[in-house]
Amino acid sequence: MKKILCTIGTRPEAIKMAPLIRALQADPDFDCRVLATAQHRQMLDQVLDIFGIVPDIDLDIMQPGQTLSGLTGRLLLRLEEVLARERPDAVLAQGDTTTVLAAALAAFHERIPFGHVEAGLRTGDLDSPFPEEMNRVVASQLSRWHFAPTGLAADRLLAEGHDGARIHITGNTVIDALHHVAATAPDPGLGLDPARRMLLVTLHRRENFGAPLQRICDALAALVRDNPEVQMVLPVHHNPNVREVIRTRFGAAERVILCEPLDYTAFVGAMQRATLILSDSGGVQEEAPALGKPVLVLRDTTERPEAVMAGVTRLVGTETETIRAAAQELLDDPAAHAAMARHHSPYGDGRAAARIAAVLRRDLLGGALPMPEGVPMAA
Predict the structure, then answer these.
(1) What are the average pLDDT values for consecutive 10-residue runs of the chain, which has 379 residues?
(2) Is 2-171+350-365 a domain of CATH 3.40.30.10?
(3) What EC identifiers does the entry list (predicted)?
(4) Does domain 189-341 have CATH number 1.50.10.10?
(5) Which of 76, 155, 343, 374 is geometrically suited to a Cys-Cys bond with 292, CB 3.0 to 4.6 A?
């Protein structure tokens, strides 16, 4: 039996790691243990409850007002202790957070193979997104296994000189999670007016703090003002740099529903109910196209260009008038809306976790699982 340590720290990581954790825990040849860093405490716990995952180790690392350097330092020290005690045969982490950076580096220091789930995403700009672009570049340098969600992500890794034998195109595990939850047709439970169209907005990116966030809010306010048949749902992120701005701007606004961050089940229900989604989230760029929902990406760059190239998301930046005009077009023009609402999923078919588990079985146990058809296994 091989011991695998799956590390999770934030809500998106938990969503995307949950299908893989469940697949590994169902295999009697793996001892899959879950380590929660709790980089984001409350939002992480919501997802773990939905998928029935109980961490074996909980570092509970989050502190109010934590800095990136302080968080990284605490994580490295605690992870060093855990890895020395547990001695897993492999460490896995997903995405581009500080938890991923620390897990990859701690595993490297302990000479333990590291597997990077959702490898190969790039913007080419270390400042955008910050610090995520640097985190994933460093994680790639330290990875034994690169689990790339798409062929384009695999091509980026090859262009950087990574060994093609270590790159595996699996699809994105977020689609596995989405299929599992969306099948229940969840109700977002927000008291929505069924006669009004709904805009769903999520905002949390560090590079949008300050003036960009104010410009985005100006665009959102104009859209609600100019479209009386529209209601806007805006789950308010816990980060005070976002929370204070949003609550000050929209706390008393008509047809704007401010709420706490939704648990994943309710959020999938909100996406299914939405007419249009405006977001700076990476996960939303992957999930919404699979549900046939147009997304306007409130960023200047994206490491997920596949959906942009397919025409189901659009990169609109943070300038007020650009955002307002793009959203208004989709509200006014049924043909333009239909062109983006095509249920097209460039990020996978819901079988990514099985592909990753098969690679680990082959490399750690010398065997192979029956492979799902669809996405090829190697770049």
Answers:
(1) 96 94 96 90 80 94 88 96 98 96 98 98 93 97 98 97 97 95 88 95 93 97 97 93 93 94 93 97 94 97 95 97 98 98 91 96 79 43
(2) no
(3) 5.1.3.14
(4) no
(5) 343
